[in-house]
C-alpha cells in the first residue's frame, strides 16, 4: 500500500510502530460503524445500503472538486 511505504520512508524508525498503530486504530474507528448502519438500512430496504454508497461517493467527489477549485496550483503557469 502506498501510504505504508510513505510512512516507512518519512517516519522515524523508533516511532514507526506507534504511528502505524494509531493509523490503523483510526481507520477501524471510522469504518466500523458502517457495517452496523448498512445492516440497519438493509432491514428497512435492500436498496438503501447502495443509496448510502452512492451518497458517500457523491459527497467525496464534491469535496474533492471544491478543494481543487479553491486550492489551484499556479506553479505550472509560468
From TrEMBL:
UniProt-recorded name of the protein: Major facilitator superfamily MFS_1
InterPro entries for this protein: MFS_trans_sf
Transmembrane segments: 21-42, 48-68
Lineage: Bacteria, environmental samples
Superkingdom as given in the UniProt entry: Bacteria
Gene3D superfamilies: MFS general substrate transporter like domains (1.20.1250.20)
UniProt KW keywords: Membrane, Transmembrane, Transmembrane helix
Amino acid at each position: 500500500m502506498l501510504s505504508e511505504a510513505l510512512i516507512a520512508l518519512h517516519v522515524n524508525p523508533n516511532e514507526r510502530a506507534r504511528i502505524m498503530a494509531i493509523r490503523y486504530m483510526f481507520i477501524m474507528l471510522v469504518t466500523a460503524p458502517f457495517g452496523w448502519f448498512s445492516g440497519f438500512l438493509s432491514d428497512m430496504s435492500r436498496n438503501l445500503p447502495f443509496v448510502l454508497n452512492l451518497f458517500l461517493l457523491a459527497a467525496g467527489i464534491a469535496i474533492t472538486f471544491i478543494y481543487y477549485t479553491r486550492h489551484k496550483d499556479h506553479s505550472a503557469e509560468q
